[in-house]
Specification:
alpha+beta; two-stranded antiparallel ribbon; 27% strand
Length: 193
């Protein structure tokens, strides 16, 4: 059976506006505690200008069902770190971490800036397809994809583990407790994510 959506890189400015709309609908601040726990949530807020600058460095991956956005997975190169100040502490921490005994700063990596699937498309494989899209599009340029997930977001943690991410580090800041996760492309390819 063919999926009712297709996955590819952001190509149209309208897709960036769709990302912002889906992001707003899934911000933890806009959800009840029960809904956030059951459905997952996002925390960082982007502007259209920030998304455009991130997109210029590395286009994000989206799943489209006709003209409707089924989900997105934002690409964030290290060079874009100043665009989202809330993530600066994470980037500073990444500079101190290792992955399988190798300093992360010596690894060709980029950050998954945020991933979100529209409610109507959850449970249909969109999340996994977005990450397959990342691997297919970026595996020649990068060795590793890194992200951080709130420990309160069990749905997201389980989904990332299913794709092939493994925990690198756990820490608490003044906002939440976080797990930094890494997905080695070669390892992820073996899993068939």
């Amino acid at each position: 059976m063919t999926a009712p959506w297709t996955v590819g890189t952001v190509r149209e400015p309208a897709e960036l506006a769709q990302i912002l709309e889906l992001q707003r609908a899934n911000l933890a601040a806009h959800l009840s505690a029960d809904e956030a726990q059951a459905q997952g949530f996002v925390t960082a807020v982007h502007s259209l200008e920030v998304l455009q600058r991130m997109h210029e460095l590395a286009p994000s991956i989206v799943a489209q069902a006709g003209s409707e956005l089924a989900g997105y997975a934002l690409s964030m190169r290290v060079e874009a770190r100043s665009q989202v100040p809330i993530l600066e502490p994470m980037f500073e921490l990444l500079e101190t971490l290792t992955f399988r005994g190798r300093p992360l700063r010596d690894t060709r990596y980029y950050v998954m800036g945020q991933v979100c699937v529209a409610r109507a498309f959850r449970g249909q494989g969109v999340f996994d397809a977005l990450y397959r899209g990342h691997r297919e599009h970026y595996q020649e340029r990068f060795e590793l994809l890194v992200t951080e997930v709130s420990t309160r977001n069990g749905r997201s943690l389980r989904a990332h583990a299913r794709v092939g991410f493994e925990p690198l580090y756990r820490y608490r800041d003044n906002v939440d407790e976080w797990v930094i996760l890494g997905w080695d492309w070669a390892d992820g390819a073996k899993r068939g994510a």
